[in-house]
Amino acid sequence: MENYKDVFISESMEHINSLTQGLLELEKNPGNKEVITEIFRAAHTLKGMSATMGYEGMAQITHDMENLLDAVRNGELEISSEVIDVLFEAVDILESALDSLSESDEENIDAQEVSQKLSKFTQIKRKGDKDAAGRKVEVSLPEEGIKRIDIQLDEDCTLKSVRVYMAFRELRELGEIVKCIPDEEKLEDGNFDRSFSIFLKTNASEEEIRARLKKVSEVSRVEIYSGEASPAKEGKAKKVGDIKSVQTVRVSIERLDSLMNLVGELVISKSRLFQIKNKYAIDELNETLAYIDKLTTSLQEEVQEMRMVEVRYVFDRFPRMVRDLAKKEGKLVEFVIEGKDIELDRTVLDEIGDPLVHLLRNCIDHGIEAPEERVRKGKDEKGRILLKARRVKDHVEIIVEDDGRGIDPEKIKRIAVEKGLISESEAAKMSDDEAKMLIFTPGFSSADKVTDISGRGVGLDVVRNKILSLGGTVELESEVDKGTRFVLKLPLTLAITKALLISAGGKIYAIPLNNVNEILNVKAEDISTVMGQEVIQLRGRILPVYDLLSLLGKSSGTNSKHNRPVVIVEKGGNLIGLAVDGLIGQQEIVIKSLDGKLRDVRGFAGSTILGDGRVSLILDIASLGVGEW
Amino acid sequence: MAKVLIVDDAAFMRMMLKNILGKNGHQIVGEAQNGAEGVKKYTELKPDVVTMDIIMPEVNGIEAVRQIMAIDPEAKIVMVSALGQEAMVKEALDAGARDFIVKPFKENKVLEVIEKLC
Hints:
The structure holds two protein chains of two kinds. Chain A is of the alpha+beta class.
């Protein structure tokens, strides 16, 4: 059973997504027959799946959804906002059941309440659902005595639907056909590849079934699975069908991770080989090494490509969220998503969900004004939020944009002063752009009141730190009464990155290159001390300079009176200098995350193995402990 | 080896089937040009297998299947269908036909179907 659960969950998630999408569409456009049919089908499939897995709650809810949608489809019930709300509620419960199932074997939901709400609509409009009882039987189907029969037709079989028909006829002689994959409609239309599965409730033996199916011509293969697990194979069976039609294979993310890891090892060995070649000046190796270099690069690209997932997997859950929040806040919002098909590394994608939720919440809560306020300002009463992904060279940009009230630098300064984040005099000196960046300061939350939406104690600083830790950047553009735009720049992948290798205290550290702004060679006399902090001047700006070793909690053995290379990095919106002992060079590194007890060590993003086999720690600039200055 | 009766209004199709079956050792015991003639020849010749076209003048293939089945419930009738005649093939199967083959004929398919019935 367990094997099928994963497939069940991931596939159910897809159906829930399409339910959500469909409901949102239906809300906008209640008469859309196609959408109704689509969500009906999604509910129907979910029902079948959950029933075969024995998840009674989900089966119950989807059953009632199906009834309701059926009534809508037949024109017996009109789509109203109450209907949509109840359907959404049902979808929520289904989703929470899936969440719970992914961690335990219990659905942990109360199906009754929403089920009653759902059936209330159908009861009003219909005099009892005649076949409800009949369908219930299907829901509480006993698992024993069901055989799954996979049938494959000849490749050149022309009237497939008739073969299906014949197979059905033969099998019906032996028992009851409980369900089939693809569904009967598709099979009858011949709308499937070569294979289909039939779940037959029967006491007949495998031999009897085979003998029956022998009578059907053009059958190239018959597989019969019986016993308890058979109906649950449904999910898997469907996948098999998918494989045939779309030529894809599902591989667990762990596999890809480990593949990436292996490729990483290969990249390391490659640089080791290069070093050996250079050390001993072995010219014969040149050609082979160049080829290996090319191969590893292609391999790396291929693996990376495999890990890419379309952003739609994250984006698709937002329309629902935006709708709910806007409704709650009494705001009118048109939510536009663009670039859903842009791909990002799975790991990056997993991490940006929460930051995006936060930014979108902000748009609705702080950005978009109430309709009457918008009208007063001469804007369309409906606000617009844009979520857009686009590929820019080797980065992906995700843009979250609203046409709301924008960020008022004066207001931001005032709040920052009130919260004691900056002093009055600092505020006075601050440029508008600098003031806007204050919203990323820890402890800043400009919400006048804490609402259900924002102001949950998670500030934009968390968003920014998350993006920075992914090796990305956050940019902010805002104009009062015009709107706000956040641009998140994200690397395509996390596993392999370019880094600057530096030495400090006899050790080599790697600084991800996207953190590095520039590198300076600073003479001792250029360093001055202001308020106990060493600083340098860079093109008229004063930057604090920290000795890297001291930051890492080691005593610096280096005499700071010497000329030293200083790496300028961006940290929390400011530039700081890191004084190091030496610069080694730029190299591709494979990031190995720090596990277990080391995970919480601040200042390091992971470790990497250098070409010569030495281990080097990768600095995490965002979490590097720099005192307030 | 099977004794086969071919019922088809198109001489060309009869010839095709005759060739395929003949060279693979089957014996064509008779031919008919429409359903009514087919039913008549069935009772006379008692073939092992009948190939039955669907669309034929006067008595069509489905009707002919019904009549033959009424005479001999054990009759082995194979429908000859063109693409797009799914519904009619199903109807014929319900009427008692055992199997079907599709025009244009593929030799291996025709043989598979005929030989399965013998």
